[in-house]
Amino acid sequence: MKYAALLAVIAAPAFADCPAGTDYSADIVQIVENMRAAPSEGAARGYSAAMWEIWLDAPDELAQAMLDEGLALNQMGDRAASRAKLSELVAYCPDYAEGYNQRAFAAFLQSDFEAALVDLDAAIALQPVHLGALTGKVLTLIRMGREDEAQTVLRTALAINPWLAERALLDEPVGEDI
Question: Which UniProt keywords are listed (predicted)?
């Protein structure tokens, strides 16, 4: 299977268009509603996992192969190669938020916070409830010394999932205990 995916990447024409992929919008709305109503962190964690399954489902086999390779390279510590592969994914599928989010993560790990922020903003523009991109933006802004902006983004993320681990970074809790 991986060999077939690699062949698809090699054989794909440079001018290929990325398909729209599966429309998960109704699923995402339901997951967000469930997260907001979750009675515990454990319950919310299950919904978060379901959301990650959606984000990591690339629009087609070629995009999935690029994403998987970019993730593997990043996991092996080859950030530059990861960013290059994820840049190919972003060029191929400019409307796929996870390509930007994962490229931002690789940039963050290289302490290239400006590049990470650009990609996080792109991912959030495409998927406003992308908790990975939102929390990544929080951490990036903190590393850049932009605490006030980070707090605003963190509040946005907590409005989606009040059980996020990053809630510990909140300066002043809003309302009742989160």
Answer: Signal
